[in-house]
Structure formats: structure tokens, C-alpha cells
Amino acid sequence: MERRIFIERSILGSAGACLLPFFFNSCHNKIPVFTTNKKIIIIGAGIAGLGAAKFLDDRGVDVTVLEAQKKVGGRLRTNRSLGIPFDEGASWIHGPKGGNPIMTLADKAGVQTFLTSDDSVEVFDIGGGRYDSAVLVDAEKKFNKILNDLRGDRDSSFATTFLDSYPQYASDRLWMYMLSAYLEFDTGADIADLSSLDFYDDESFPGDDLIVTNGYDRIANYLSRDLNVILESKVNSISYNNSRIKIITDNDEYNADLVLVAVPLGVLKRNSIQFQPGLPSETQKAIDNLDMGSVNKFFCLWDKAFWNTDLQYIGYTSNVKGEFNYFLNLKKFVPANALMTFAFGNYSVETESMDDSEVMHAIMANLETIYGDNIPYPKQFLRTKWSSNEFTFGSYSFCANGSRSSDFDVFKKSVNNRIFFAGEHTSRDYRGTVHGAYLSGIREAKKIIDVLSI
Ligand SMILES: Cc1cc2nc3c(=O)[nH]c(=O)nc-3n(C[C@H](O)[C@H](O)[C@H](O)COP(=O)(O)OP(=O)(O)OC[C@H]3O[C@@H](n4cnc5c(N)ncnc54)[C@H](O)[C@@H]3O)c2cc1C
């Protein structure tokens, strides 16, 4: 199924080799080394912060990364506690062709992948009956066309605009399933909060998605090798009214000439970091306008599979929108009888206050409808709670009702060439993705090099 508009493009030029001969003490190596006594601090060791840090470190810039958590990677987080890599954050490399830089990193980091096919899916209705594939294909065609044509206004959410235009789908479970498992999954938003204007105007690299099978965290670990990353250093404030920028963490104080803020939008929205003076009004407005969505993942492991293990995906038109309506068959690419299921939008937030047995009960109720009452409960179970995680406060950013996608661009402006911003929420074209986050880090690292060269 075609989920996003694919625009082929090649990114990442040649990293400016020998562009600045005065400042590089060697142009003989592949990457010229930069001579500067300026100190750069990067806040956040997700892929955006690490990508920027490696770019600068490779060029001889003195860079320190302050990371609040005990490990690097942020939303590249792999849980191996059950002996199988369960990616709690990103799983897919979206669009592996056309110069997607994550492919190069994946190669260097020893990442293994499996080529997915969105067509390898069966969708079941609430009574347990399977949708005929011709009905599905037809519905998806209509769905894609409507999404391409639909345009609302700044004050109406996607849900309002869509349901005003197509009231016949309000109680159609297949349509609610597609709106949730496709659109809410892709954007990270509940459709009631999503912009009806710029809900789908981002871009994609071409090619069918790959799923990482041995842990996405390998990429973060690869990037952080040899970097100066100080873990368990939660930044509380950044003061930039003096010639040097002062950064205060839970347990220390640092000074820097330039700072790259690579923490998630959710952290900025909650004012977890105090800026002194406050951020420019335009930046603050973009922080307020855009929003963080909620996608949670649930990993269930059984002794024996009871589903069709040839399939990649199982869809279910659940009664409640966003409620465990999509299952990924992990047995397709790891040696485990495991399914990963998802919660989207408002229901995803709700799951975070449900205990494990309530969640399990709701997942099993959906599976029992499809496969019968005799299927066993999973023997092991893992889950995420991204919306209440104090280091993200959400899964990924989206263009909220009342915002425009130009709000993502605001973060490309530095504060007086001293405070810079990176992260998936700073990438208008590739928001909510690993490649968007990484490319934003490289973009800002290049700007920092430019500033150091003045
Ligand atoms: C459930 C889920 C599924 C996803 N699936 C995909 C997918 O399949 N494919 C895809 O391309 N993308 C996916 N994404 C999105 C992708 O993971 C993110 O866009 C990307 O990893 C974000 O990287 P980042 O560097 O911007 O932020 P992060 O990875 O969040 O890094 C920010 C870092 O800042 C740190 N931090 C926060 N506050 C502070 C502080 N006060 N002081 C110091 N450090 C701080 C955090 O601990 C974190 O390490 C998914 C995300 C989620 C949550």
C-alpha cells in the first residue's frame, strides 16, 4: 500500500571537504580536520544529537554530549530482556533507496533487515470474518484518493473535515481501522488533533520499507563510539545572556560557546529545560503549535503460534479506534512465536494508565475474536509508555490542528548563532522518522562549522 507521497531525492552532499582551507589543518585525509578552541555542547544523545556530534568530532571540533538517560539512542531503544530484540521505538527504515542515509549507517553498524510488504496482510472484522482482499484493495484506493484530495482549514481538525465530507464512514469499522492503523500510525497523531491542512505534506525516500531485525539501537551505539557522551546528565537550564553559555544539569555545570539542543519536542513543550533569556517568540510559538503524538508498542510471546505465520501483518477493525488493531508477525523474521501490536492516538495515551492485565485482556479479546476463545494468553509480555516518558512526552511530532507545517521550519533558525536545534521535530520534510532526525543533526552540525569559520 502506498502510504506517503514518494519524492526521490539525494541528500547529504560531500560534507564540505576542503571548503574552508584556512581552518582545516589537513586536507589530505578524507575528512579535513578543523582547528578551533571553541567548545560545543549537544543536549540529547538520540540519533540527531549523535549524528551531529560525530560529524563535528570527525572534523576535530571539541564536542560533548549531555544525555539524561543511562544509555544513548533515545527513541532508538531495543529491549533484549526476553532474548529477542524488541524495538520499543523505531523499527522500520522507511524508504531505503534514493540515498536514505540510514542505510549507510545500518551497514556500518551491522544492522540486519527484512524487506516488508504492506500487501502481506489479512484484515478481520469484529465478528471474526476476514475481509475479502478485493474489498480491501478497493477501500485502500478510495482511502488514498480521499487523503490526497482532502483539504480543510486551519481551525478544523482532520477528523472534523473528514467526517463532515464523508459522514457515511463515521460508523464504518474498516474506515476507522484505515484512519487509525495507517494515518494515525504514520503521523503519530489522533485524527481529532491532526491538522486538516498539512497532515500529509511530508516527503519520503523511495523503496519498500525494511524492518530492523537485530536492534535499531546498534546505529546509536555505532555513532556514539569514541564520542564524549556524559550519561545521566539531565539538563535543567541553559543561560545564554553572557559570552559563554552556561548549562546546568542535575549534578554539574558546563560552559560552552555553542549549544545544539537535540531533545524531543515533548520535552520542549513541557519546559523541562529553562532557557534564560526565554526562546524567541517565533520558536516558542512553533513549540506550542506543533504536538507530540502517541504510538505505543506491545510485544507478546507464546510457546506456539496460532496465527498464519506466512503473513506479515494482521489487521482488526476494533470497536475502539486505535485499540490493538494492527499486529506485526515477528515470526516472519526472528525465531520467536511473537506478535507486536500497537495502540494509536488517544487510546494509546489511555493504555498508559492501564495495568498489564487490563492491556493483556484487551489485546486477547481482539485476538480471540479472530482466532477463537481457545488461544492461550502470552507467556511473556513487554510494553511501552511513550507519552508519560519524561524524556520524550510522546512518540513523534505531528502538524496539529491550528499549526502549519512551516512551524517545523522555524527550528532551522538558530538563536543568535549560539543555540541551535535538531531532532525529528525540526525536519519539515521527514518529521517523525529516524532519517529526518539524523539529517537534522547533520544540517545543524554544518551550520555550526560555518559559524566557527567566521
Ligand atoms: C513507538 C515509535 C515507533 C517509531 N517507529 C519509527 C519507525 O519505524 N521508523 C522511523 O523512521 N521512525 C520511527 N519512529 C520515530 C523515530 O524513532 C524518531 O523520529 C527518532 O528516533 C528521533 O530521534 P531524535 O534524536 O530526534 O530524538 P530522541 O531519539 O528522542 O533523542 C533525544 C534525546 O534527548 C534526551 N533528553 C531528553 N531530555 C533531556 C534533558 N533534559 N537533558 C539531556 N538529555 C535529554 C533523551 O533522553 C533522548 O536520548 C518511532 C518512534 C516511536 C516512539
Q: Can you walk through the features of this model?
A:
With 454 residues, this protein is α/β, with parallel strands linked by helices. The chain has two domains: 24-76 and 214-290 and 404-452, FAD/NAD(P)-binding domain (3-Layer(bba) Sandwich); 117-204 and 294-383, Polyamine Oxidase, Chain A, domain 2, CATH 3.90.660. Strand 13 (245-249) and strand 14 (253-256) form a beta hairpin. Helix 1 runs parallel beside helix 12 and helix 2 crosses helix 6 (217-224). The strands form seven sheets. It has a six-stranded mixed sheet with strand order 9-19-20-21-18-22. It has helices spanning 47-58, 101-108, 133-149, 158-165, 173-187, 217-224, 265-269, 281-289, 345-351, 356-371, 406-409, 434-452; strands at 24-26, 33-34, 39-43, 62-66, 78-79, 86-87, 92-93, 113-115, 121-124, 210-212, 228-230, 235-239, 245-249, 253-256, 258-261, 274-276, 291-292, 295-302, 313-316, 323-329, 337-344, 380-383, 397-398, 419-421. Bound molecules: flavin-adenine dinucleotide. Flavin-adenine dinucleotide is lined by residues 43-49, 66-69, 74-76, 89-92, 94, 234-235, 262-264, 267, 272-273, 295, 297, 386, 391-392, 395-396, 423-424, 432-434, 437.
Radius of gyration: 22 Å
Hetero groups? flavin-adenine dinucleotide
Strand content: 15-25%
Stretches where pLDDT falls below 50 for ≥5 residues? 1-29
The overall number of domains is 2
At CATH level 3, the topology of the largest domain is: FAD/NAD(P)-binding domain
**Strand adjacency order, main sheet:** 9-19-20-21-18-22
Distance between the termini: 48 Å
Q: What portion of residues is helical?
A: 25-40%
- What value does the average pLDDT take? 92
Which structural class matches the secondary elements? Answer: alpha/beta
Which term fits the overall shape? globular
The biggest sheet amounts to: 6 strands, mixed
- Mind telling me the CATH superfamily name of the largest domain? FAD/NAD(P)-binding domain
